[in-house]
Amino acid sequence: MSVEREAMEFDVLIVGGGPAGLAAAIRLKQLAPDASVCLVEKGSEIGAHILSGAVLEPRALDELIPDWRDDPPALATPARDDRFMFLTETKAYKLPTPPQMNNHGNYIVSLGNVCRWLGAKAEALGVEIYPGFAASETIIEDGQVRGVVAGVMGIGKDGEEGPNYQPGMELRASYTLFGEGCRGSLTKKLFETYSLREGVQPQTFGLGMKELWEIPKEKHTPGLIWHSVGWPVKSDTYGGSWLYMLGDNLVSIGFVVGLDYGNPWLSPFDEFQRFKHHPAVAAMLEGGKRIAYGARALNEGGFQSIPKLVFPGGAIIGDSAGFLNVPKIKGTHTAMKSGMLAAEAIAAALTAEERAPVLEAYPTSLKASWVWSELEGVRNIRPGFAKFGLWGGMINAALETYITRGKSPWTLAHHDDHAQLKKAADAPKIAYPKPDGVLSFDRLSSVFLSNTNHEEDQPAHLKLKDPSRWKAVNFDTFGSPESRYCPAGVYEAVGVEEGQPRLQINAQNCVHCKTCDIKDPTQNIDWCTPEGAGGPNYIGGM
């Protein structure tokens, strides 16, 4: 049965209020002030779902808003001291800083604050922004994207319309840009509908977990940028840390684990908690207090995993496509530039005598831009770690950086992360220490600090395509890995002691990191969009 909805018409619709979507909105209004531009964001406000380290390379921002330093986002702190460390269990050894990790001229920022700041700039230019408005369905007519359905609310767990039911609205546009971030729920369907991943390498991902700490001012070094590899993960697992000091007393600390790891007993969250007990790290956090927590997946495939970016009526921008420069540990500048280039293609199309359905100018200009050459030059570094491990990967990175300078006559391949797990019986179990409540913490207290909440009476946004697969595959073969790779305690194997194991899904805990959608060994978990404003509400500083 079709649902009757009100419709609103725009020249351009943007799905997602991250750096790419906001940059696109601003650039559009700069070039086409009379164009009607609407941006929808599933978070309760712009920035609510934004999580990153983050060190900002201002190249794209300089192009978009040249005088931004006269009125910068809150907490923007100039980078001053780069340190790249190799950790053993008790020691920290300083390594030469790779040139890609030289942060001279960059800024430590709260990416959430940057997006709030960009949102204000966009609204001042006349962009209509609707936060808490989740896009749940793409409107496709005669093979062309015509917009999205957004704002559906009040459907109960039983699938029936509740007393507060709202059918949502059809937001229609000549062009729709999808900037949903990593593993966007609508974007992954567009990949299938338009075969956008045909002929490119599989995307590979990392899980990034972050905490925000307040530390005593006398221990705070504004502008310190500290990265590490090595302990606590083994050399066959891609991973590493960051620690950035910003503002007067804030520390952004986090850990990334590549989701191509093989041991199903590994818990990225517990590796992060264990990492903070390293003497060098604990010394920097001593006397401090953890005030926020979050997690999100990262597209790490880079150049060889970029999908086809355009289709009739729309385009994909930002981390939905995957423009992260892994060796730089940065993707905000490339995401913003992709949004700007898409906006320029749309601005030209809007003034053409006949509006072309496919924005071919966007991928053409992207391939001619610094984004393309930057990603092409580092394309072999991330897969080198997957192929050769930590030490071989570092040798390969040195070769690519200093000898071939990104011009090697070969391109290393990626693999599907979900296919890399070993059977539980063939992998060593990992014993993690209990959290001490001072440096390390459990999942539930962490989720509490993410301010995560979902309307309880709604259909679960985490679905098993085939529920019977969980016991036969996930539990019996892989030992229920989802109970460990989820950084929010969403998945629990219960009834094990009684001999009747079943999967309990605590969807209320979900911080929208998308790891389950990526790492499930048979791709049986489907992450769908919950009601708008659900999920985390990250504070300023995250």
Automatic annotation (TrEMBL):
Show the GO MF annotations. Answer: 4 iron, 4 sulfur cluster binding; electron-transferring-flavoprotein dehydrogenase activity; metal ion binding
- What is catalysed by this protein? a ubiquinone + reduced [electron-transfer flavoprotein] = a ubiquinol + oxidized [electron-transfer flavoprotein] + H(+)
Q: Where is the ETF-QO/FixC ubiquinone-binding domain?
A: 205-298
Question: What does the UniProt keyword field contain?
Answer: 4Fe-4S, Electron transport, FAD, Flavoprotein, Iron, Iron-sulfur, Metal-binding, Oxidoreductase, Transport, Ubiquinone
Taking the record's annotation, the residue ranges forming a coiled coil are none
Q: What is this protein called?
A: Electron transfer flavoprotein-ubiquinone oxidoreductase
- Tell me the Pfam families matching this sequence: ETFQO_UQ-bd, Fer4_ETF_QO, NAD_binding_8
InterPro entries this protein is in? Answer: ETF-QO (IPR040156), ETF-QO/FixC_UQ-bd (IPR049398), ETF-QO/FixX_C (IPR007859), FAD/NAD-bd_sf (IPR036188)
Enzyme Commission identifier(s): 1.5.5.1
State the PANTHER family in the record: ELECTRON TRANSFER FLAVOPROTEIN-UBIQUINONE OXIDOREDUCTASE, ELECTRON TRANSFER FLAVOPROTEIN-UBIQUINONE OXIDOREDUCTASE, MITOCHONDRIAL
Q: What does this protein do?
A: Accepts electrons from ETF and reduces ubiquinone.
- Is the 4Fe-4S keyword given for this protein? yes
Q: Which domain of life is it from?
A: Bacteria
Organism for this UniProt entry: Neoroseomonas lacus
- Cofactor entry: FAD; [4Fe-4S] cluster
Q: Which residues form the ETF-QO/FixX C-terminal domain?
A: 437-538
